UniProtKB/TrEMBL annotation:
InterPro entries: Cellulose_synth, CES_Znf_RING, Nucleotide-diphossugar_trans, Znf_RING/FYVE/PHD
Family statement drawn from the similarity comment of this UniProt entry: Belongs to the glycosyltransferase 2 family. Plant cellulose synthase subfamily.
Name the record gives this protein: Cellulose synthase
Amino acids binding UDP-alpha-D-glucose: S347, K353, E354, D383, K524
One BP term from GO: cellulose biosynthetic process
Residue positions binding Mn(2+): K525, D549
Biased composition (Basic and acidic residues): 233-243
GO cellular component: plasma membrane
Cofactor(s) recorded in Swiss-Prot or TrEMBL: Mn(2+); Zn(2+)
EC annotation from Swiss-Prot or TrEMBL: 2.4.1.12
Catalytic reactions of this protein: [(1->4)-beta-D-glucosyl](n) + UDP-alpha-D-glucose = [(1->4)-beta-D-glucosyl](n+1) + UDP + H(+)
Keywords assigned: Cell membrane, Cell wall biogenesis/degradation, Cellulose biosynthesis, Coiled coil, Glycosyltransferase, Manganese, Membrane, Metal-binding, Transferase, Transmembrane, Transmembrane helix, Zinc, Zinc-finger
Species assigned in the record: Setaria italica (Foxtail millet)
Amino acid sequence: MDAGGLGFLVAGSRREFVVLNVDDFSKQGSSQGCPDYICQICGDDIDILQEENEYFVACNECAFPVCRTCYEYERQEGSQVCPRCKTRYKRHKGSPRVHGDEEEEGSDDIESEFASSIAGRSSTVHPYRVSVAESSINSWDIDSVSITNSGASVHFYEEHVGTPTNHHALVVHPNTGEIMRLRTRPINPNRDLALYGYGSVAWKNRVEWKRKQQHKMQKVSSDGEGSDLNDFDSDRDTPRCAESKQQLSRKLPIPSSKINPYRIVIILRLAILALFFHYRILNPVHDAYWLWLTSVICEIWFAFSWILDQFPKWYPIKRETYLDRLSLRYEKEGKPSELAPIDIFVSTVDPMKEPPLITANTVLSILAVDYPVDKVCCYVSDDGAEMLTFEALTETCLFARKWVPFCKKHKIEPRAPEWYFAQKIDYLREKVHPEFVRERRAMKREYEEFKVRINAVVANSHKVPEGGWSLPEGGPWHGNNVRDHAGMVQVITGHDCVMDDAGNKLPWLIYVSREKRPGYDHHKKAGALNALLRTSAVLSNAPFVLNVDCDHYMNNSKALREAMCFLMDPVLGEKICYVQFPQRFDGIDQHDRYSNHNVVFFDINMKGLDGIQGPIYVGTGCVFRRHALYGYDAPTATKPPSKTCNCWPISCCLCCGSKRKCLKAKKKQENQKKMKCRDASKQVHPLEVTGGENAALVPQEKFEKRFGQSHAFLASTLLENGEGCRFDMLKSLDDCIHVLSCGYENKTQWGKEVGWIYGSVTEDILTGFKMHCHGWRSVYCMPRRPAFKGSAPINLTDRLHQVLRWALGSVEIFLSKHCPIWYGYRCGLKPLERLSYINSVIYPWTSIPLIIYCALPAFCLLSGKFMVPELPASLRCSGVESA
């Protein structure tokens, strides 16, 4: 468009016109007119990075010139690939994360990204930069002009006489309505204007996208000024804050200087093993053939076991969490906490082997956890139905009213009183509250009195009344017969009337004892945990579940937040089934003579597994996703469709096979739809789920075969994000008694595909293996302060009994249908992860070849024959002559 013969062109869309300078085309230098410094999409000048002092390069493969704004637009709104070479754009320093960035390797720059996001949000007014302005301009050169209609988006001017010689472009500031002057880029009048990107559809889309993003950030910056954010919160594309685009955790690979020497040693050992077996197999001992063959078989088994143990350690990693970002995202000032609810399971059986004082300390550390009170529910499973455990929990509730506010006021660690007062450290360190010393002394005295009351309860439990135990209300205690009693549920804390001394509400504490009858297989710990899973679904139905043993107290009050950094991560969280914490122990001697710390397993092997598909489940200190415990598959990312026969000519003979496959796939899908319609038509009593946007009719018969015949529990499995945390006490407790009955799991998938898996005393390995087979991945979290600490065997007898139980469980898995050698193929289990599970179930069998191999030298001495070939005569003669 001609602009009066003054050397101007007007470009833009219907909503925006920009004046471009043409006369400067002849004045520009060769460096200024280089097309490599001009965006080929929008025509804008490419930024100069301040740190590197170089032009921004979006694609490292072909260096196709694209500005930073178009690069961000393509990553967030477009196809995320370079227009020229079709290579996926990698994330540059300071750029917000998008889906798919977690798959890229290399170092991370979370700190710089966080800083840049904060810096971008600090200013209240965000300058509007149109596509013809240079992005390196740091300030606006504003020339105020009177405007008759400030609300119009298009402004015209009739004269250019007063335009300065540098021919600045004139645009309208979006906030003040003033006309502003920007430096322009000279263009060649002989070229088509569309080649510069001005006025094209792509240019319009990017201008609109930039305006939308700046409008959103202005709303965020005006949040503190009382602006209306109802529409803002409802927009899914609107970030709640600048930190919402950042991950809550990151993966830290082991430095190459540390891991590469270990890898080289593995390769060298493999080469030496190959040479060794080459010699052993090609040089048999004919005089003692059976001794030689037995020794070779044992050596092959040892080599195979070593390989299984080494290769899962090939890529160990560490992880780092950001608790401050978790709080910024889900705990905003003046608003209710958005952290996910969590149910905590504490399992105990015999109070004689597991003292009530130890269980009480574990419960106290949970009640005082640094997490929103209304988001925590603690369930204690008493599988022995002991009156002693119930009375100890009642006393624990009374002491918790004083202990919990003391912990939260002074932020003490750990929050188990037995181990807090036993610490051999300076407890005054970093304490500035003037009343701390006085309150600590008073609390220590209260705890000593609490211990005396617990000891009295234990002493009274040895004197069983003739008619059995009875409740304080006068009713009989249902657990007088340990092997034949009804289910029991008692809410101890969590009522509005149960407050601590500071006037705050305590977390829910619920006592649970499942029903037991003769003739039923109760499946020990796995059955008790499944009973807790159903009970918690009826009462609180939190989306996440923490499982701890009664002797593992919470040593880090922020352990739940550490786990939420992974499970609530917007990018990686939905693929994680559980977060496993390492086991740490108290009361171990200085030299650890019984190897209770298991340093090799928890500090080396588990890190290696975390780099593959995740660590195995070790039975305690693990935060689960409830949806994964129900046996559902992990969410899968939608992949773009592959090439079909339409890509090839009709005459091409290579398409015959692909056409047939397409036809077969279509027929299979149609048959599956028909079968689903038939199954749905057979259901007479559907399960109706109401109260949400996803209300639907689900076939009840299908759910009953999987989860059992409890309407309340079936309805809870279809709710999301812990809905239904407020429940009707009487009605819910009746439903709890139903799901606690010993015959509830008959003819269902409990213990087979749902919940903790039965069939082994080491149900932890089997349960984690099934989840990984469903495509889930797990995470190993090692915070600086250990999350949980427990009690370890202090004598050789207990240690041997523990190791024997682990070995027996591995043998049971090896002999079952869930053996990883032949189970779970064509599913989500990765090959190296399978090798680790195979190693965990075959290690007990190594004892057999080890015993045989140790006995072979004795057989050789008795028989006078050796399992290795003798040296040739020439070598022996040379050796004698040299001697």
